[in-house]
Design brief:
With 174 residues, the protein is α+β, with helices and mostly antiparallel strands. Helix content is 33%, strand content 25%. The chain is rod-shaped, with a radius of gyration of 24 Å.
Amino acid sequence: MSELTITLLRLGYLVLLWVFVLSAIGVLRRDLYGTKIVDRRGPAPRTRATGTAAGAASAEQPAPQTGGRGSRAARASAIPTRLVVTEGPLRGTTLPLGSSAVLIGRAPSCTLVLDDDYSSSRHARIFPQGGQWLVEDLGSTNGTFLGEVKVQQPTPVPPGAQVRIGQSVIELQR
């Protein structure tokens, strides 16, 4: 073999070694700092900024604007407007509730990304149906609990009830 061939093999081996070292550093960095949590609160500011979006948001809620004070206050208190993490690593995190489902789990594509070894990648979803919010377990390993009861099928979630997913406890609040 010529000296040029040996030099090129050495350089190729050096490049391959550096690629391996940098990929190992990338894996260690992801393990240390965890999954990047993406803030998906985009629709909430638009609702406040434009009048048409605010009208659409009020159309989602069944509370009439012209009804008596008693009936409107009773209905408004029964409709949750935000999802709050009350216990766990993301304690204090608040998500506004709209007309779409909230997907909860470890996967980066979820609406609420939990950094929890006891939750599945797509653990549960909370979704509106018929004027109320329901929680559904998506086949998780450790289960989803509404209070102390394991969720087996889509179950209505009253405001203030605790939904436990892994180490996190989530509440729907007004």
